[in-house]
């Protein structure tokens, strides 16, 4: 077993890249659930965003346009979920599961003919001085724009929920939609906006997989990332900071197990491959052992006539 080939600096830099797709999906789902909606369709929105972003980027030659298309694709699928659950008053769990199945099937259909094609490269930012710093530069200041957008979204969501009137309304709707409605807040509107935001974030996360993380289109390439994002939100107690730590944990273990496989470590590759999912869930379960609870109206249908 030879561990000398593992570069710690490269490992930490890769950790941040590997965590970005799940971080984007999870921070979007956190906003959705804080509004009192349980959307189990994250996997479907991610895979739809992955193929929409990949196809548009390949056809336009622009990764930026691809990411915009991915956000729109995820938001459109989320809008379907929003219509079913907020207007048709369909069961949220069943609608979310159906959304995932629909997204997987739709992406397989749209992705025909894109296997084996390389997308246009998403270039890393060259930040003067900072990118050239030893150790710190490659780890923190040599990534593409989407990495920093994901981190900015975490900070923005945290600040919005904690300090702004919009965050207060969102939390009020999620805690008790009947009381929020009685105070004059538009519960359905708030929830629809949250659902659209979550869908756009999931789409961006999927596109990051197909355009940067892999980069290629493969049917079913999200490989459970959406489900891990859902679990991450719950076990992080609906707190943005813990979502970030959980995403870094998953990304770090994912990168570490890939680096360990060629070293000859006496652990079967199958166990190494499942370790990111197993260890992330285990650690998040331990982290969630506090008094935090789910939003009071999470998963409950709102009847405007009430």
Summed up, what is this model?
Helices cover 68% and strands 0% of the residues. The protein has helices at residues 8-34, 42-60, 63-87, 92-110, 136-140, 145-163, 165-175, 177-182, 187-213, 225-235, 240-260, 269-287.
Q: Please state the CA-atom Rg, rounded to the nearest Å.
A: 20 Å
Mean pLDDT over all positions: 88
Largest sheet: none
Query: Which consecutive residue ranges, at least 5 long each, have pLDDT under 50?
Result: none
Number of continuous helical runs: 12
Mass-distribution shape: globular
**N- and C-termini, Cα separation:** 66 Å
Number of strands: 0
Oligomer: single chain
DSSP helix fraction: 55-70%
SSE succession:
HHHHHHHHHHHH
- Class inferred from helices and paired strands: mainly alpha
Relative strand content: under 5%
Tell me what the structure shows.
- By secondary structure, this protein is mostly helical.
- Helices cover 68% and strands 0% of the residues.
- The chain contains twelve helices and no strands.
- It has helices at residues 8-34, 42-60, 63-87, 92-110, 136-140, 145-163, 165-175, 177-182, 187-213, 225-235, 240-260, 269-287.
- Helix 1 (8-34) runs antiparallel to helix 11 (240-260).
- It is globular.
Secondary structure blueprint with pairings:
Layout: H1 8-34, H2 42-60, H3 63-87, H4 92-110, H5 136-140, H6 145-163, H7 165-175, H8 177-182, H9 187-213, H10 225-235, H11 240-260, H12 269-287
Helix pairs in contact: 1-6, 1-9, 1-10, 1-11, 2-3, 2-4, 2-9, 2-10, 3-4, 3-9, 6-7, 6-11, 10-12, 11-12
């Amino acid at each position: 077993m030879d561990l000398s080939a593992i570069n710690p600096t490269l490992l930490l830099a890769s950790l941040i890249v590997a965590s970005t797709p799940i971080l984007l999906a999870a921070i979007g789902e956190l906003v959705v659930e804080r509004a009192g909606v349980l959307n189990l369709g994250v996997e479907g929105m991610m895979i739809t965003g992955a193929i929409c972003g990949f196809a548009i980027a390949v056809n336009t030659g622009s990764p930026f346009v691809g990411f915009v298309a991915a956000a729109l694709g995820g938001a459109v699928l989320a809008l379907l979920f929003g219509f079913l659950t907020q207007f048709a008053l369909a069961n949220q769990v069943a609608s979310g599961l159906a959304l995932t199945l629909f997204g997987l099937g739709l992406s397989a259909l749209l992705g025909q003919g894109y296997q084996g094609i390389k997308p246009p490269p998403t270039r890393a930012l060259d930040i003067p001085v900072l990118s050239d710093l030893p150790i710190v530069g490659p780890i923190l200041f040599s990534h593409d724009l989407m990495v920093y957008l994901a981190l900015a979204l975490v900070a923005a969501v945290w600040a919005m929920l904690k300090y702004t009137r919009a965050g207060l309304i969102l939390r009020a709707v999620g805690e008790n939609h009947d009381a929020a409605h009685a105070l004059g807040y538009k519960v359905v509107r708030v929830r629809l906006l949250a659902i659209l935001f979550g869908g756009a974030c999931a789409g961006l996360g999927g596109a990051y997989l197909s355009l940067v993380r892999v980069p290629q289109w493969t049917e079913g390439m999200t490989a459970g990332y959406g489900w891990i994002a859902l679990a991450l939100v719950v076990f992080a107690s609906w707190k943005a900071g813990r979502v970030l730590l959980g995403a870094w944990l998953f990304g770090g273990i994912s990168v570490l197990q890939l680096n360990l496989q060629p070293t000859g470590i006496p652990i079967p590759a199958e166990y190494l491959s499942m370790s990111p999912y197993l260890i992330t869930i285990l650690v998040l379960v331990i982290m969630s052992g506090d008094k935090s609870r789910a939003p009071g109206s999470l998963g409950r249908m709102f009847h405007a006539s009430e």
